[in-house]
Design the sequence.
């Protein structure tokens, strides 16, 4: 349980994939939850749940902290007398995880008087513009014409994977030709990004995660100096000075504001 417990009938459940890194959890997930809580106001009780049971189990074993999964959180909401339930996911897109969440909620909708689900981070055109501005503002210090700034996304098999191409196009239209986006598990692949960077005239590459938290993907797939297949190692092998920024998007105030706005719109969609 997080935040203020002011009205047991109104619950705002913040749903995240989760991370085993306590520091990243605090800097990213907890920061987003705080922004959502402030936007929701005193009449809403803010709760947390994670969708990764593996992460939940690791945290319980290593930190002795128990975090609910989505089913447990919904059961608690029902037994606790919640009538109005708003769910705000911290997903980046309406992909497979978001669809799964919506299906679970649809099955339980009859347990509550009213329910609403907030949009993921990148939903509207305005969301994309605001996130693009946040990413470039956070990386502006590296813009010197000789540095390629590369963001690592997760990627998905769902059609929602198009968000990465869309964001790349927005950055290009903003004149940010030195910004590149790739994914770990889909397209554009790391090979695609390396080819694009090699086509330029760069001496340095800055790597940042385009993910809510800087978790295992950022630490291992992106920044590992020991793994020859990591993004750091691959770019270094290409002859670039490679710099890794281990910061999740949840550390960017502008990103937290978008999640808060989405949660607030979901709240106002419920007519009391």
Sequence:
């Amino acid at each position: 349980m997080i935040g203020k417990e002011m009205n047991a009938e109104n619950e705002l459940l913040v749903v995240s994939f989760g991370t085993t890194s306590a520091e990243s959890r605090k800097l990213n997930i907890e920061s987003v939850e705080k922004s959502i809580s402030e936007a929701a106001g005193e009449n809403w009780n803010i709760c947390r749940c994670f969708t990764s049971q593996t992460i939940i189990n690791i945290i319980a074993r290593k930190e002795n902290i128990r975090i609910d999964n989505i089913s447990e959180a919904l059961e608690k909401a029902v037994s606790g007398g919640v009538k109005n339930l708003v769910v705000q996911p911290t997903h980046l897109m309406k992909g497979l995880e978001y669809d799964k969440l919506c299906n679970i909620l649809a099955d339980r909708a009859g347990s509550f008087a009213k329910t609403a689900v907030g949009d993921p981070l990148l939903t509207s055109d305005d969301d994309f513009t605001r996130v693009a501005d946040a990413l470039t503002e956070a990386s502006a210090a590296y813009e010197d014409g000789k540095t390629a700034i590369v963001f690592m996304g997760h990627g998905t098999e769902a059609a929602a994977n198009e968000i990465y191409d869309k964001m790349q196009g927005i950055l290009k239209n903003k004149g940010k030709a030195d910004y590149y986006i790739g994914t770990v598990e889909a397209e554009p692949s790391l090979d695609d990004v390396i080819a694009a960077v090699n086509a330029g005239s760069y001496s340095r590459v800055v790597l940042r995660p385009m993910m809510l938290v800087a978790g295992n993907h950022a630490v291992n797939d992106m920044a590992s100096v020991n793994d020859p297949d990591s993004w750091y190692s691959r770019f270094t092998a290409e002859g670039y000075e490679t710099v890794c920024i281990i910061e999740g998007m949840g550390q960017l105030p502008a990103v937290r504001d978008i999640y808060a706005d989405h949660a607030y719109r979901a709240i106002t969609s419920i007519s009391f």
Notes: The domain at 10-121+252-268 is CATH 3.40.50.1400 (Rossmann fold). Strands lie at 10-16, 45-50, 84-89, 114-117, 147-153, 179-183, 204-209, 241-244. The chain is about 45% helix and 15% strand.
